[in-house]
Protein backbone atom coordinates (compact mmCIF):
# COMPACT_ATOMS: atom_id res chain seq x y z
CA UNK A 1 0.00 0.00 0.00
CA UNK A 2 1.21 3.44 -0.96
CA UNK A 3 -0.13 6.85 -0.05
CA UNK A 4 0.69 9.99 -1.99
CA UNK A 5 0.58 13.18 0.09
CA UNK A 6 0.92 16.79 -1.01
CA UNK A 7 3.63 18.96 0.54
CA UNK A 8 2.98 22.60 -0.29
CA UNK A 9 5.92 24.66 -1.57
CA UNK A 10 6.27 28.22 -2.87
CA UNK A 11 2.89 29.75 -3.86
CA UNK A 12 1.35 26.93 -5.83
CA UNK A 13 3.77 23.99 -6.08
CA UNK A 14 3.14 20.55 -4.67
CA UNK A 15 6.05 18.32 -3.72
CA UNK A 16 4.38 14.91 -3.78
CA UNK A 17 5.47 12.48 -1.06
CA UNK A 18 5.16 8.79 -1.94
CA UNK A 19 4.80 6.94 1.36
CA UNK A 20 4.75 3.16 1.53
CA UNK A 21 3.11 1.64 4.58
CA UNK A 22 5.02 -1.62 4.95
CA UNK A 23 8.64 -0.75 4.28
CA UNK A 24 8.31 2.80 5.61
CA UNK A 25 9.75 4.22 2.43
CA UNK A 26 9.27 7.90 1.64
CA UNK A 27 10.13 9.44 -1.70
CA UNK A 28 9.54 13.01 -2.83
CA UNK A 29 8.88 14.26 -6.35
CA UNK A 30 10.37 17.57 -7.52
CA UNK A 31 11.49 19.10 -4.21
CA UNK A 32 11.96 22.75 -5.16
CA UNK A 33 12.33 23.52 -1.44
CA UNK A 34 13.84 21.43 1.35
CA UNK A 35 12.22 22.95 4.44
CA UNK A 36 8.64 21.81 3.75
CA UNK A 37 9.99 18.29 3.16
CA UNK A 38 11.91 18.28 6.46
CA UNK A 39 8.75 19.48 8.24
CA UNK A 40 6.69 16.72 6.62
CA UNK A 41 9.22 14.00 7.48
CA UNK A 42 9.41 15.15 11.09
CA UNK A 43 5.62 15.35 11.46
CA UNK A 44 5.24 11.78 10.12
CA UNK A 45 8.34 10.40 11.82
CA UNK A 46 9.85 9.29 8.52
CA UNK A 47 13.23 9.49 6.81
CA UNK A 48 13.76 10.17 3.12
CA UNK A 49 14.36 7.17 0.83
CA UNK A 50 14.96 8.99 -2.45
CA UNK A 51 14.06 11.79 -4.84
CA UNK A 52 12.38 11.83 -8.24
CA UNK A 53 12.93 14.76 -10.62
CA UNK A 54 10.79 15.42 -13.70
CA UNK A 55 12.81 18.30 -15.23
CA UNK A 56 15.54 20.79 -14.48
CA UNK A 57 13.57 23.91 -13.46
CA UNK A 58 14.67 25.47 -10.17
CA UNK A 59 11.26 25.24 -8.54
CA UNK A 60 11.51 21.45 -8.96
CA UNK A 61 15.14 20.97 -7.97
CA UNK A 62 16.40 23.71 -5.64
CA UNK A 63 15.69 21.68 -2.47
CA UNK A 64 17.73 18.66 -3.55
CA UNK A 65 21.16 19.80 -2.27
CA UNK A 66 19.91 20.50 1.27
CA UNK A 67 17.96 17.25 1.41
CA UNK A 68 21.17 15.40 0.44
CA UNK A 69 23.08 17.10 3.26
CA UNK A 70 20.72 15.38 5.69
CA UNK A 71 20.30 12.16 3.67
CA UNK A 72 23.61 11.87 1.77
CA UNK A 73 23.23 8.35 0.37
CA UNK A 74 19.78 8.48 -1.19
CA UNK A 75 19.28 8.15 -4.96
CA UNK A 76 18.16 11.09 -7.08
CA UNK A 77 16.35 9.81 -10.17
CA UNK A 78 15.80 12.15 -13.08
CA UNK A 79 16.17 12.66 -16.81
CA UNK A 80 19.44 11.91 -18.58
CA UNK A 81 21.04 14.91 -20.30
CA UNK A 82 19.41 17.33 -17.85
CA UNK A 83 20.66 20.84 -17.10
CA UNK A 84 20.16 19.88 -13.45
CA UNK A 85 23.43 18.23 -12.47
CA UNK A 86 22.34 16.59 -9.20
CA UNK A 87 20.89 13.42 -10.72
CA UNK A 88 22.59 10.22 -9.52
CA UNK A 89 20.39 7.79 -11.50
CA UNK A 90 19.72 9.13 -15.03
CA UNK A 91 16.63 7.75 -16.76
CA UNK A 92 15.65 7.34 -20.43
CA UNK A 93 12.45 6.64 -22.32
CA UNK A 94 10.96 3.20 -21.53
CA UNK A 95 13.21 2.63 -18.52
CA UNK A 96 11.52 0.89 -15.60
CA UNK A 97 12.13 1.92 -12.02
CA UNK A 98 10.49 0.54 -8.88
CA UNK A 99 9.78 3.20 -6.24
CA UNK A 100 8.17 2.23 -2.93
CA UNK A 101 6.87 -0.94 -4.55
CA UNK A 102 5.40 0.79 -7.62
CA UNK A 103 6.87 -0.18 -11.00
CA UNK A 104 7.03 3.10 -12.93
CA UNK A 105 7.74 3.33 -16.61
CA UNK A 106 9.63 6.40 -17.77
CA UNK A 107 8.07 8.38 -20.59
CA UNK A 108 10.09 11.21 -22.12
CA UNK A 109 7.75 14.17 -22.64
CA UNK A 110 9.64 17.07 -24.26
CA UNK A 111 7.75 20.32 -24.76
CA UNK A 112 7.82 22.35 -21.53
CA UNK A 113 11.54 21.55 -21.35
CA UNK A 114 13.59 19.21 -23.51
CA UNK A 115 14.62 17.01 -20.57
CA UNK A 116 11.13 16.47 -19.14
CA UNK A 117 10.17 12.91 -18.11
CA UNK A 118 7.02 11.51 -16.49
CA UNK A 119 6.83 8.58 -14.07
CA UNK A 120 3.97 6.39 -15.24
CA UNK A 121 2.10 3.50 -13.68
CA UNK A 122 -1.36 2.21 -14.64
CA UNK A 123 -2.80 3.76 -11.47
CA UNK A 124 -0.50 6.67 -10.64
CA UNK A 125 1.35 9.14 -12.88
CA UNK A 126 3.66 12.01 -11.93
CA UNK A 127 3.45 14.41 -14.84
CA UNK A 128 5.49 17.38 -13.54
CA UNK A 129 4.90 20.43 -15.73
CA UNK A 130 3.84 18.48 -18.84
CA UNK A 131 0.20 17.68 -18.07
CA UNK A 132 -1.69 19.87 -15.60
CA UNK A 133 -5.32 19.51 -14.65
CA UNK A 134 -7.10 21.40 -17.42
CA UNK A 135 -3.87 22.48 -19.09
CA UNK A 136 -0.29 21.77 -20.09
CA UNK A 137 3.08 23.38 -19.45
CA UNK A 138 4.30 26.40 -21.36
CA UNK A 139 6.60 25.68 -24.28
CA UNK A 140 9.89 27.02 -22.90
CA UNK A 141 12.26 24.71 -24.78
CA UNK A 142 10.29 22.33 -27.00
CA UNK A 143 7.89 22.74 -29.90
CA UNK A 144 4.12 22.41 -30.06
CA UNK A 145 4.62 19.25 -32.10
CA UNK A 146 6.77 17.73 -29.36
CA UNK A 147 4.24 18.69 -26.68
CA UNK A 148 1.39 17.22 -28.71
CA UNK A 149 3.27 13.90 -29.02
CA UNK A 150 4.07 13.98 -25.29
CA UNK A 151 0.45 14.59 -24.32
CA UNK A 152 -0.73 11.98 -26.80
CA UNK A 153 1.36 9.32 -25.04
CA UNK A 154 -0.07 10.33 -21.62
CA UNK A 155 -3.60 10.34 -23.05
CA UNK A 156 -3.35 6.57 -23.54
CA UNK A 157 -3.27 5.96 -19.78
CA UNK A 158 -6.23 4.11 -18.22
CA UNK A 159 -9.23 6.25 -17.23
CA UNK A 160 -8.75 5.56 -13.52
CA UNK A 161 -5.07 6.59 -13.54
CA UNK A 162 -4.50 9.32 -10.96
CA UNK A 163 -2.54 12.28 -12.32
CA UNK A 164 -0.21 14.13 -9.96
CA UNK A 165 1.17 17.30 -11.52
CA UNK A 166 3.37 19.84 -9.77
CA UNK A 167 1.23 23.01 -9.71
CA UNK A 168 -2.13 24.11 -8.36
CA UNK A 169 -2.98 25.93 -11.59
CA UNK A 170 -6.32 24.18 -12.01
CA UNK A 171 -8.84 27.02 -11.63
CA UNK A 172 -6.93 29.32 -14.00
CA UNK A 173 -6.58 26.45 -16.48
CA UNK A 174 -10.28 25.64 -16.26
CA UNK A 175 -11.25 29.27 -16.85
CA UNK A 176 -9.35 29.01 -20.12
CA UNK A 177 -10.87 25.60 -20.88
CA UNK A 178 -14.32 27.11 -20.46
CA UNK A 179 -13.48 29.85 -22.98
CA UNK A 180 -12.48 27.09 -25.41
CA UNK A 181 -15.50 24.88 -24.74
CA UNK A 182 -18.26 26.90 -23.02
CA UNK A 183 -20.82 24.18 -23.73
CA UNK A 184 -18.82 21.37 -22.03
CA UNK A 185 -21.08 20.20 -19.18
CA UNK A 186 -18.50 17.91 -17.52
CA UNK A 187 -16.13 20.88 -17.45
CA UNK A 188 -18.71 23.12 -15.73
CA UNK A 189 -19.35 20.47 -13.09
CA UNK A 190 -15.64 19.96 -12.52
CA UNK A 191 -15.07 23.70 -12.11
CA UNK A 192 -17.72 23.78 -9.38
CA UNK A 193 -16.01 20.90 -7.57
CA UNK A 194 -12.56 22.52 -7.87
CA UNK A 195 -13.90 25.83 -6.52
CA UNK A 196 -15.25 23.98 -3.48
CA UNK A 197 -11.89 22.32 -2.93
CA UNK A 198 -10.01 25.62 -3.12
CA UNK A 199 -12.46 27.37 -0.78
CA UNK A 200 -11.55 24.68 1.77
CA UNK A 201 -7.84 25.20 0.94
CA UNK A 202 -7.69 21.62 -0.40
CA UNK A 203 -5.84 20.53 -3.56
CA UNK A 204 -7.74 19.95 -6.81
CA UNK A 205 -5.28 17.11 -7.37
CA UNK A 206 -4.81 14.36 -8.16
CA UNK A 207 -7.02 14.43 -11.19
CA UNK A 208 -7.84 11.36 -13.28
CA UNK A 209 -7.18 10.62 -16.92
CA UNK A 210 -10.93 10.14 -17.39
CA UNK A 211 -11.59 13.71 -16.21
CA UNK A 212 -8.69 15.17 -18.19
CA UNK A 213 -9.79 13.54 -21.43
CA UNK A 214 -13.21 15.14 -20.90
CA UNK A 215 -12.14 18.67 -19.85
CA UNK A 216 -8.54 19.43 -20.84
CA UNK A 217 -8.49 21.29 -24.18
CA UNK A 218 -4.87 20.28 -24.79
CA UNK A 219 -5.99 16.61 -24.79
CA UNK A 220 -8.99 17.42 -26.98
CA UNK A 221 -7.36 18.68 -30.17
CA UNK A 222 -9.19 15.87 -32.01
CA UNK A 223 -12.62 17.26 -31.05
CA UNK A 224 -14.47 18.91 -33.93
CA UNK A 225 -15.67 21.84 -31.82
CA UNK A 226 -12.35 22.69 -30.21
CA UNK A 227 -11.61 25.65 -32.54
CA UNK A 228 -15.13 27.10 -32.58
CA UNK A 229 -14.33 29.96 -30.18
CA UNK A 230 -10.76 30.79 -31.24
CA UNK A 231 -9.86 34.50 -31.21
CA UNK A 232 -9.78 36.09 -34.67
CA UNK A 233 -5.98 36.40 -34.81
CA UNK A 234 -5.66 32.58 -34.64
CA UNK A 235 -8.33 31.72 -37.14
CA UNK A 236 -6.36 30.78 -40.24
CA UNK A 237 -7.07 27.12 -41.03
CA UNK A 238 -5.20 24.30 -39.27
CA UNK A 239 -5.57 20.66 -40.16
CA UNK A 240 -3.14 18.87 -37.89
CA UNK A 241 -3.70 18.21 -34.21
CA UNK A 242 -0.31 19.62 -33.21
CA UNK A 243 -1.12 22.86 -35.06
CA UNK A 244 -4.36 23.08 -33.09
CA UNK A 245 -2.40 22.54 -29.87
CA UNK A 246 -0.03 25.31 -30.96
CA UNK A 247 -2.97 27.70 -31.36
CA UNK A 248 -4.46 26.75 -28.01
CA UNK A 249 -1.09 27.26 -26.34
CA UNK A 250 -0.68 30.72 -27.95
CA UNK A 251 -4.21 31.67 -26.90
CA UNK A 252 -3.60 30.47 -23.34
CA UNK A 253 -0.28 32.38 -23.16
CA UNK A 254 -2.24 35.57 -23.85
CA UNK A 255 -5.41 34.67 -21.95
ZN1 LIG B 1 8.88 23.74 -15.19
UniProtKB/TrEMBL annotation:
CDD domains: hydroxyacylglutathione_hydrolase_MBL-fold (cd07723). Binds 2 Zn(2+) ions per subunit. Coiled coil: none annotated. HAMAP family: Glyoxalase_2 (MF_01374). Pfam families: HAGH_C, Lactamase_B. Pathway: Secondary metabolite metabolism; methylglyoxal degradation; (R)-lactate from methylglyoxal: step 2/2. Its EC number is 3.1.2.6. InterPro entries: Clx_II_MBL, Glyoxalase_II_hydrolase, HAGH_C, Hydroxyacylglutathione_Hdrlase, Metallo-B-lactamas, RibonucZ/Hydroxyglut_hydro. Keywords: Hydrolase, Metal-binding, Zinc. This is Hydroxyacylglutathione hydrolase. It catalyses: an S-(2-hydroxyacyl)glutathione + H2O = a 2-hydroxy carboxylate + glutathione + H(+). The gene is gloB. GO terms for biological process: methylglyoxal catabolic process to D-lactate via S-lactoyl-glutathione. Its cofactor is Zn(2+). Transmembrane segments: none annotated. One of its GO terms (molecular function) is hydroxyacylglutathione hydrolase activity. Thiolesterase that catalyzes the hydrolysis of S-D-lactoyl-glutathione to form glutathione and D-lactic acid.
